[in-house]
């Protein structure tokens, strides 16, 4: 069984993903997690500490998603398209609540460098991962291509999360990967 801390963090991510950042209170997290009142505040004394905990939790979850044993080998542009399309489908489908939470926290923390630091560190992990993938599939300028490819992917995620949940993924990613390799 998950610890009270893990249950609180899972509940916090779900709350923010479903109801927005304003829903993030210790009492609501306790209620959502089925924990005794005050349990969340035992782990996270302030709202900022709770937000920092959620940020760290999201980063840990995303790093686990990128673990080498959890991802397929990517050696061709086609495999890259498959991997990125699958990742976007996950982020906008089964992991949509986590994705919405990440976006909400990015916006909430934009002016707070300390709270934003773990998300920015996690982003650097994704940038490095994308650069390595683009290098492996033959991009001539992998750093520039990574910026373009990530912006396209992030735009598509945001588009699917907000205005068109059924927007096609693969054609957009195929075009972006082709452009990244030019």
Key terms:
182 residues; mainly alpha
Mind explaining what this structure looks like?
By secondary structure, the protein is mostly helical. The protein contains 9 helices and no strands. The chain has a domain at 67-181. Helix content is 75%, strand content 0%.
Quick structural summary:
By secondary structure, the protein is mainly α. It is 75% helix and 0% strand.
Give the radius of gyration.
18 Å
Helix content: over 70%
Order of helices and strands: HHHHHHHHH
The class by helix and strand makeup works out as mainly alpha
Can you give the mean pLDDT?
A: 91
The N- and C-terminal alpha carbons lie at a distance of 50 Å
Task: Detail the topology: elements first, then pairings.
Elements: H1 4-19, H2 26-33, H3 39-43, H4 47-66, H5 77-92, H6 96-109, H7 113-136, H8 142-162, H9 170-181
Helix pairs in contact: 1-2, 1-4, 1-6, 4-7, 5-8, 5-9, 6-7, 7-8, 8-9
């Amino acid at each position: 069984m998950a610890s009270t801390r893990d249950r609180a963090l899972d509940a916090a991510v779900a709350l923010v993903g479903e109801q927005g950042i304003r829903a993030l209170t210790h009492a609501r997290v306790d209620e959502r997690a089925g924990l005794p009142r005050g349990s969340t505040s035992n782990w996270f004394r302030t709202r900022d500490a709770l937000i920092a905990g959620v940020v760290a939790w999201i980063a840990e979850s995303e790093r686990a998603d990128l673990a080498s044993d959890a991802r397929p080998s990517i050696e061709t542009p086609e495999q890259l398209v498959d991997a990125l399309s699958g990742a976007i489908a996950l982020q906008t489908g089964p992991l949509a609540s986590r994705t919405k939470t990440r976006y909400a926290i990015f916006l909430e923390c934009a002016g707070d460098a300390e709270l934003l630091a773990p998300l920015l560190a996690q982003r650097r992990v994704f940038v490095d991962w994308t650069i390595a993938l683009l290098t492996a599939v033959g991009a001539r300028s992998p750093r520039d291509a990574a910026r373009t490819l990530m912006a396209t992917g992030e735009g598509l995620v945001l588009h699917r999360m907000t205005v068109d949940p059924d927007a096609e993924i693969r054609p957009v990613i195929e075009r972006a990967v082709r452009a990244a390799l030019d």
